[in-house]
Amino acid sequence: MIRKKGQTIRLDTPNTTLVIKADTAEYLYYGKKLMSAGGFEALSPTPRKIFSQYGENDYTEYGVLIENSDGGFSTCFSFSKSKILTEKPEIEGLPSSYGEGKTLELKYIDAPTKVCLYLYYTVFDDCDAIAVSSRIVNQAKKEICVRRLASLQLDLLGDYSVVTFEGAWARERQKISRDIVRGVYYNDSKKGMSSHSRNPFVIAEGKEGVYGFNLVYSGNHKEAFERDEQGRTRALVGMNDFMFGWKLAPGETFCAPEAVMCYAPSEDELSLSMHAFVAEHIVRGKWKKKERPVLVNNWEGTYFDFNEEKLLAIARAAKDAGAELFVLDDGWFGKRDDDTSSLGDWTDNADKTGGGLANLADKIRELGLEFGIWVEPEMISEDSELYRSHPNFAMKVPGREPTRLRNQLCLNLADERVQNYVVRSISDVIARSGAAYVKWDYNRSLTDCYAKGVAQGEYFHRYMLGFYRIAAKLTKKFPFVLFEGCAGGGGRFDLGTLCYFPQFWTSDNTDARARLKIQDGTSYGYPQTVMTAHVSACPNHQTGDSNPLETRFNVACGGVLGYELDMSKLSESDFATAARQIEFYKKNRKLFQFGTYYRLGDVFSSDVGGFMVVSRDKSCAAAVVSVSGKVLGGPVPRVAFKGLAPSAVYDVTTRPQDNYAAEQAFSAGGDLLMNGGIFLRDLFEDLQSKENSGCLYTRMYLFKKNKI
Length: 708
Ligand code: DGJ
Prior knowledge:
This protein is α+β, with helices and mostly antiparallel strands and 708 residues long. Bound molecules: (2R,3S,4R,5S)-2-(hydroxymethyl)piperidine-3,4,5-triol.
């Protein structure tokens, strides 16, 4: 709700309040919901600007930097007026959140030039996250150049530490915390993708609670935190201004991507709010609330080495085990037998697919499975028909050797003709195969950003606009297809892609121990509904480690479940175990995919971790608890559950596992289970604990509210 009363504008979400001074548009308060209605003047002796610019007595990181037509960089945007809008303004060309709510518009004018700056704050009725965006409208008579436009600025008072989610390929979103003592800290990407290295989701943690920030964008981003001599920590969130410069002719508008901010008393509560925001206001379309199929993907089972016979054998076994969707991964097109060729040639390799995709897909459907297909639409191999006929489609700097990553180049998506080629060729793949699912991969970052006719400073962003145009067209054209984003694992796991693709491949690392951390880190900002997680073969192909099949399954239940191995090669007993797992998962799928998700223990700082999902009415729950190291003679690990109804009594059982004889069954109060926790002594009495020393130990606890 947004109300303008006297000298204040007040934005209320269910649990938070943001107060803005009506005459100067400065922040007065942002935090826990206020029940009182006045006295705001007493709050802030230090001005907390809502945006900052070069040219005034403020030397911290600027939110807005404009190169004026006279070559100077000073601006003096001053507040002009505010408006409460009932319709959320569209951000042209960019994805953004949606839903019922109100939007506050703040307008600023740079008097000498008449350039206008608009800020938007959208408050939804059902969620604590506030969507914030900014735009520049050039009402001057001459061209200007936008050098930086942050989407969101928040000046915080006091000491803060910044929590980021960083990593690399196969090690995405590891939680790192650092104090912002003095100086500037940047969490950013210059890779042309939100990146494996630093996710745009960040948290500022202080004594009064935590503030979470994210960006609805998949390209270069920058989250800056500057602690100044006044004890103020400025948070700026937006597109990266690295190499950036956007020319704006008179009358033109530049829109920055939407950002989101959220206050909560604790990390756990912040995650719950971010999950609700993503599930309700980012993910859209037919799959938003629909249970996702259990898939079997052939990638780790075959890599490039497959033919129709092998694929059908995997599919038959998948069907027998209870899976619902077969996904054909990389290698089915052109003459691709390894990663050196054919990207861009989305034509069937008849030898590997038994006469073509349509044929193969029909056979898969005859088995009773849906058919899904892998594509990497934004790329081109130099050894491809597309490159031979359209070398100019590739992103390259003339006269320079391009940087090749995974032997491939990027397509120049800043060019509309290239975008149209992608839409055409991928539409054809979906149409001719009747695919019910598409895995959209992206296996390298941008290095040779250049295109004739495109200003260098605009290239990165024009690429993203091209990608979004393609994604919008294809998802509109195929509304029933389930799209899964992927970027060499989780390299573009962000709110921008999630506006088009309702789920994302969390990481190429399918090792259960590594996955626990990757999924746990991801869960701070994103719900389990958008994280996909597969059971794969052991020794694991990424780490070489082995973990019991039941452990791999337990961990994969923390996301949308799939299997990624040659199911036809499983031993009889492993096959039976997998079939039991799938049956169990399908019965409890709604709980796993759409229940309220909590982290348990702390995988980043202790040996005990895991997660828990609780049904919306708290009548049932499931928890996966993990112990990652043996503590001999030490304290017995203990875990406290979360999210249960405190006064209810729950019947607790353990899911039968083939490597665990002694099942548990007991009843206890919700408050006891949450506050007292239970000891995990039995995890060390595992049948396999001696054979597989070094394994991750997991148990799944199931909770049912006792009727009495
Ligand atoms: C990277 C993806 O993350 C993998 O799952 C797989 O699809 C390969 N690319 C295929 O090249």
